[in-house]
């Protein structure tokens, strides 16, 4: 398994042999638009989570709803809750463990830093980690554009923290640590998802298991008066919870279809445009991103696109 192999399977999350089999026989005209919509929805649900007051309870309700919606889609789409073997199921559970830690660190990253800054670091950092894993440990041959992309991502991350380093703002640097840790878990569940897909696991039950396994981690995040916090979030933001859960699920389902009608490498490149959308949502949230940080996020986004080529 290598970075190029991961891209052939959808680069991280939701692609399988059946999707790629139908690629040449389906129209490609909707593919780019669907993938851009998926990227927009992913950045949007992260933005809604950022705008919430109690991020831990909000994320728990979002993922719970996402799991319920995915479960409901199984009989509708004719997909059963079936795994090829015990190993595939075990990998699905491992994916959920990585997802659980990701959601925990995501809530802390969104609480400690701006959406545009934390999102760019998490997503760009994860891309570099997956690329390094593939090239260093698996011996995948790296191309010049991928090296350039990795450099862009690292320079962009440095630009995000440049002013804090220059002014000695150690607290800001400490706050950003959650985004860096989150990038590790994002890379982890990407690789685990891919490994499960190579076992011919259907993406929907794979995703459903991961969501179920991740819920106890999120429940741990609200261990202090959990029911009161959940009730308060549902009472104060019911529409936002429903919207966020729907966006999270739709971004997954649309990405599935986008992969079906688009070349995988091209698909993940467009999917990484979510970094740019996150910067826009950061502006809408009236977050104080500096010009240097906006430039850094843009550089990270460009680097992620180059890594996908």
UniProtKB/TrEMBL annotation:
It comes from the Bacteria. Coiled coil: none annotated. Keywords: Membrane, Transmembrane, Transmembrane helix. The keyword Transmembrane applies. GO terms for cellular component: membrane. The chain crosses the membrane at residues 27-45, 57-76, 88-107, 119-139, 145-165, 177-193, 205-222, 242-259, 265-285. Residues 30-161, 176-308 form the EamA domain. InterPro entries: EamA_dom, EmrE-like. This is Permease of DMT superfamily. It comes from Bdellovibrio bacteriovorus (strain ATCC 15356 / DSM 50701 / NCIMB 9529 / HD100).
